[in-house]
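Lecture 7, part B: from sequences to assemblies.

Below are the input chains for today's worked example.
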Amino acid sequence: MHVGLQHYLVVSFMLFSLGLLGVIMRRNLLVIYMSLELMLNAANLALVSFSRFNNKLDGQVLVFFIITVAAAEVAVGLALIVALYRKRQSAHVEDLTSMKL
Amino acid sequence: MNASLISLEISVIGLGLVLMLADFFVPAERRRFIGYAAIAALGVLLVAGLSGNGSCSQFGTAFNGMFVNDALSLFFKRFFIVAAILVLFMAAEFSDRLAAGSIAEYYSLIVFALAGMLFAASSNDFTMLFVSIELITITFYVLVSFQRGKLQSLEAGVKYLILGALSSAFMVFGIALIWGTTGKLNFTELAAVAPQFADSKIFLLGVLFVLVGLGFKIAMFPFQIWAPDVYQGAPTPTTAFLAVGSKAAGFVLLLRVLFTAVPSVTHNWANLLIIISGITILYGNLCAIPQRNLKRLLGYSSIAHAGYLLLGVAALSASGQAAVLYYLAGYLFTVMAAFMVIALVLRHLATEDISGLAGLSQRSPLLAATMTIAMVSLAGIPPLAGFFGKFLLLKSVIETAQVTGNHGYYCLAFTALAGVIISLYYYFGVVRAIYWSKSATDLSPIELSAPAKVSIWVCIAGMFWLGLFPNMVLNFANEAAKVLGK
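Predicted structure of the full complex, as structure tokens:
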């Protein structure tokens, strides 16, 4: 079977939807955060496969930027989640209820 | 390539690094004063670099067209530096509520966020757009949760983190789809080829996803859920910077994407923009009515104002875009004044309720008057900045309605007027608490430091100046809007 651009894109769309589903359905902050990374990597996969099949390098360069930014985001994000866990002894979204109307 | 074009951004980043290093050399009890040095440095940059013939206000492009200096970026760079100066004044007053000695870090994060906004003002390429927006957002994750000892601040930080990361994931995927179909990342180059892809579903999905990411930054419906919680939980100077700087950065990128990169798509999406703008106005104003927490109230009000600003975007005309810029300038002084009063008055109270303002007219007539003027300006009553801005936005919408004959625009103008009338109720609730509340227990006068007084007078002067003598800023805004139509 010949594997073409569509196959990569379908995988990328599926990864993106799985990530989105995880963010919506899961209740643990760490799992939500992992799902977010999945969504970013879906975009990376799409960029790399477009690059490969269109013979252009801009997309691969953008992937480096995305990976770097995602690393910074994870560093800040995990620090925040740990700080919240220390304060609250929980990493579940149901417990984030100190602010209401 | 002309690298001197980014000298302003380099100086701001250098300033941030210096502020961070100053932490080592200045004793904890004097770190508060570092902020005044930062204000002075930004003031010098504003006057020397961005005045009429300043060294950083020459036009041109750098980095293969990724970075552009034009009238629009100049307008927003001035805007962002003024905003950062006022936020630094506020942060200096706020320093007693942050962990001991950490204020220098707080200043430097504000300056780094400013650097992100300056890059956003100049970005002309999706790579630049992504990196500058992430520089702003990641800095804000830290700024929002800076009061680590306070549960609400951490919770606000985590909520902003999850939803912010979600919106950037959408944006990145959108950029991937746009680049994959068109092969262009540069806005100007994309504009040339975009009409060929007007029927490509994948391309349109990409543009929609980029709008999701930008819509999150400006808190437009349906991506506004984070705003009230984050506004309430974040330290007050952060909230002010979020309301003004982050929103304006979202708007400059939105304008560039919609009118420079994909104008052919935007013109087909007029009805979508009309609907989003109308719902955002109604949602913000209706949800603000029952709020008792001042910062939460301003959070909903900022959603409503995002809706008003979208009027100018939906108008799809140069006068609409100029009105957006003018409205943002007025919004800057108004919101800064309101948050400055909140930071000063509620510093010794555990609550941030509207009732905390009771008796303010006797405790400090200046602060009472400032808050009243700010609320009146937000509500859009003449002769203040908010009135003239709303007038321009509505005028541009009605002009477009007459040109295109699209009745949606009349409905939108009517919705905006209804929103203004609803908003009178809750803005005047705040004014009533200041002057006519009987429940005041603490009537001790509030001491104001000299820098706090200066920043308050600047805000008041700004609100009256933009309301009474709009010509100068309006000319700048018109010049800037011309860039987009090219």
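Note for the exam: Residues 14 and 46 of chain A are 11 Å apart (CA to CA). Keep this in mind when comparing with the next example.
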